User: Fold DUF1907 domain-containing protein from Penicillium frequentans.
Amino acid sequence: MSVTTHPREPPPMGELATIIQKSLESNFANATARVVDCPDLREPPFNLAAAGLSGNPCIADIGGQANLFPTPNLDARYSLLSLAKDMQMLPTGGSIIGAGAAPFYDLGHNAELAPNIAWSSEADVPEFDIPSSLRVVNRTRVIDVNNEGLSSCHHATSTNCALMMNLYGSTGDPGQVLKISARGRKGDHNFTNCIRLGLRDFYGDSNPISLGGVFLLKTGKAKFHVMPDFPKDLPFRDREQLEREWLTYHVFDAPVVCLTVMHSADPESLGLRMEHTHCFDAGGSRKGGHYHYDVPGEEEVEYEAYLHPASTLYRIDPPF
Assistant:
């Protein structure tokens, strides 16, 4: 697979916090962004596989939407551990979270995936593909729908994935992170786009910022989509058919855990997916999927995020 490496030079997190808060204040009734010591994200409500987001922070964009449209590329099969190797992560310890497509070849059908793994090895083994040498914590969720369009959220049984992936990787250590809170949306942008567009407006193409991490929909409700199995009638006629006739849409109440990767800009024309967020219910119910935006309801929406800038971006196996 093709792998290209693109260094990032993120400014101090305090500077990022100031810019993000200003952007959020234009879109939410109440918002704060500050630098804090990361809480243990393995604990509820986040339930990540690693404690933190620090240590060699990197982001990878793997495959892409062209592997789905107009006809699914059934050869686009990946392993999260192999992708970690492509991201120059070490088998002695690390963590990956993000958003992508589930391994249809394992499940027997297409579905959404919320990758959430950590690994460690007592031995300094040179490869990831030695199962006996690695201790893997796999809290990845699969979100799928049945023939009646009802969704379910359950634990993955493998560390495989497919088609397209957007991943945030680190050694998973505690450290300083951006804590971002917002409540009461009053503008047009959803939570993630408000963050990345604020950074885009400030830095432009001169210093693209890539962020990854986790946020919680604490109160309120949001709209999600979940991919069903591949349709029998292929190829897709157009994107309208894919988005309006094939995808299933759902509105779920909080709490929902959301794993996110975002970029302020793509000046190198790498074909990046500018924002990708997949969500799950840590309680194991049917809630989850691809995050779109919060929706008006009886209870005011509230978000709490922990994000970290990446110092390296990897573009892996682009479908062009």
In short: The chain has a mean pLDDT of 94.
